[in-house]
Amino acid sequence: MTSDPAPSSRPSSPGSGLFGLRGFLIDAPEYGRLRSWSDGALVIDDGLIAEIGDYETLARKPRPQPVRWLHSQRVAVFPGLIDLHAHVPQYPAVARGTSELLPWLRTQIFPLEREFTGPKGRREAGAFFPELAKHGTTTAMLYTAVYEDSTEAAFHAAAKSGLRIIMGKMMMDVGSYGNLQPTKVVSISLHESERLCKTWHGAGEGLIEYAFSPRFAVACSEKLMRGAAELATKYGTYIQTHLAENREEIEKVRNQFTWAQDYTEVYEKFGLLGPRTVLGHCIHLSDRERGALAAAGANVAHCPSANLFLRSGILPLEKVRAAGLRVGLGSDVAAGPELNLWQVMRSAIESQKARSFYEPDAEVPSPAAALHMATQGSADALGKGKLIGSFEIGKEADFTVVDYGSLLPYRQKGTKATADLAAEDIVSLCIYRGGPHAVVETFVRGRSVYRAPEPELF
User: Fold this and answer.
1) First CA to last CA across the chain, in angstroms?
2) Rounded Cα distance, 86 and 365, in Å
3) Which of 132, 189, 343, 430 is 20 to 30 A from 82 (CA-CA)?
4) CB atoms within 10 A of CB 407
5) What band does 8 get if pLDDT is binned at 50, 70 and 90?
6) Residue 276 has what pLDDT?
7) Is this prediction's pTM over 0.90?
């Protein structure tokens, strides 16, 4: 068995030579199907997956230069987890509030976001990204607040973290804390967002990207939404916003845009829908709306834990998938009570189980399906399915390494308990009991961005 080397011998940059990861390799390249190597190995070269297979075979393979092996068969290695939807300034408010979306925004979130500027904003932005890495998240799509200074600070922190981050300054000009900005809020918001985009889109050797981020139709004028869409087209960036999360929200959109036949048509008319658009929630949509989103190539960030926390509803997952929409998972911190994507996967399963009690056609995703949505499914939604999301030669080396033995109800050292576990067992253990306490190490593009202090393996 290979011992875990000292931290100084770990790869610090993508170009630091060959190294290998040994462990129980598990990925979910297709919805509902696992693929695994019980004592497997990945060989990483210049930040890319160069070889995949059984450890004993790859360890004996002759090469011009030696492979530095990390970890052992006692850990599980998964593709890096991908969070499609979260809010940086909201993290301090996780698990707070008992109301539904709109009153929760007014009482819990807008006051918090209003303070996300100056030294406080810089301090909180710096603290957020190490939390993602600690949870095994390697890619995240994020909103900040309306302020340019704290968004700039968040981008600096993101670049320092080594994570793969898509992010944008919150854009809003109707009925919210945005009215504390100068009078010409729309032009200022567009100008600041464009300036941030020009600075940061493609930074960090391509790991940092920009997303123009109108909050949702309730908080945005036509001019702001059209402007955001035009800028996204101009610079080839992402667009992120929220859609049909809450019934009161939908009613407000109906009253605000009386000409529109439904919520989705607002975004259609203003140019916000396309293959690089990621829409949070999408719970309460008609068949027409799901068809329109699919026709535009838009993508869904499914946020099941947040939907439950704010009593927003349960996504009809099988209808969204049947429409041909790409679906990934989002923590939606702070409506979602934690950054732990394993628990988001659990909510994705359990919420559909609840639906199945009164809707017999409800599709209950398996653990394999949930893992797919948090990895390859989210990568596909971002247009990065050929780059990350599963174990394929030539893909970039984004991984999370998990001490799955620590998730058993008690340590079974010296027994065959862990050796008898199948891939399905390990994935289920991670979904129902996993989290940062079991994350051993997180890699992005072959570089270690988080390592637990002296992990005690079974």
Assistant:
1) 13
2) 22
3) 189
4) 20
5) very low
6) 98
7) yes
